[in-house]
């Protein structure tokens, strides 16, 4: 049997260990490597939805992250099968898909991530070096080892969360800001937090990974204490901006 894909995030999930990650919005291997060298990080999200990253950046960035012993996860712009294929064929250890607002969309994403007979993914892993294998060796374990994360950020996906978790997804990743907007309730309100807790409990019941976007260490610590399995801790652009603001304030004080 070939060795499984080298996926630190998958290992953390299997071991039921908290998985802390960071958001990368700037293109380039140098930024990716810098983020991936952060002590305690398990995964790095390469953001091709809202970030400045395109699929021409994928290969170098995922290899830079994976070389640091961290899982590169690519957030694609939409739930298109060809976008899934481009991300995974670059060697990403998994994908994150935004606005998965129904069970049908979740099932479509899972199918796009899996090789036949479990799905429809086309075969061509010629550049999957960051996943630790190429060709048939890669294909042999990809269906089981790659991480499929769907973003829950709409009232309908909250309503259908139990069914969404039966489709084969690994991670329900809450986008709390979009969820607040789509629910038309204030961020942090009882209604908002109630929906977040409903998702977390559904994941626990289904044996899936509950995850949520956080902007800083304080938020991440709070969500981990609530029982979330996977949290973001910061973004590259926020970290840069916050550090510069603090440094300039100190210099001028």
Automatic annotation (TrEMBL):
Keywords: Lyase, Metal-binding, Pyruvate. PANTHER family: 2-KETO-3-DEOXY-L-RHAMNONATE ALDOLASE, PHOSPHOENOLPYRUVATE CARBOXYLASE FAMILY PROTEIN. One of its GO terms (molecular function) is aldehyde-lyase activity. Pfam families: HpcH_HpaI. This is Phosphoenolpyruvate/pyruvate domain-containing protein. The keyword NAD does not apply. InterPro entries: Aldolase/citrate-lyase_domain (IPR005000), HpcH-HpaI_aldolase (IPR050251), Pyrv/PenolPyrv_kinase-like_dom (IPR015813), Pyrv_kinase-like_dom_sf (IPR040442). The keyword Nucleotidyltransferase does not apply. Belongs to the HpcH/HpaI aldolase family. Residues 38-240 form the HpcH/HpaI aldolase/citrate lyase domain. One of its GO terms (cellular component) is cytoplasm. It comes from Fistulina hepatica ATCC 64428.
């Amino acid at each position: 049997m070939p060795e499984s894909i080298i996926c630190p995030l998958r290992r953390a999930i299997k071991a039921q260990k908290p998985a802390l990650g960071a958001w990368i919005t700037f293109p380039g291997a140098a930024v990716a490597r810098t983020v991936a060298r952060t002590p305690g990080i398990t995964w790095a999200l390469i953001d091709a939805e809202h970030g400045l990253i395109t699929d021409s950046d994928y290969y170098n960035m995922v290899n830079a992250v994976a070389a640091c012993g961290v899982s590169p996860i690519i957030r694609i712009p939409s739930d298109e099968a060809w976008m899934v294929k481009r991300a995974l064929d670059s060697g990403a250890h998994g994908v994150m898909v935004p606005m998965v607002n129904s069970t049908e969309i979740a099932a479509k994403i899972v199918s796009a991530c899996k090789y036949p007979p479990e799905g429809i993914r086309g075969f061509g892993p010629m550049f999957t070096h960051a996943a630790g294998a190429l060709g048939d060796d890669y294909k042999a374990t990809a269906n089981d080892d790659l991480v499929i994360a769907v973003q829950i950020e709409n009232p309908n996906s909250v309503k259908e969360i139990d069914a969404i978790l039966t489709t084969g997804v690994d991670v329900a990743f809450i986008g709390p800001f979009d969820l607040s907007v789509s629910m038309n309730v204030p961020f942090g309100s009882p209604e908002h937090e109630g929906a977040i807790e409903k998702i977390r409990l559904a994941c626990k019941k289904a044996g899936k990974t509950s995850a949520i976007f956080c902007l800083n260490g304080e938020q991440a610590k709070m969500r981990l204490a609530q029982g979330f399995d996977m949290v973001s801790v910061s973004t590259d652009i926020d970290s840069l901006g916050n550090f510069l603001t603090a440094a300039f304030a100190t210099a001028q004080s």
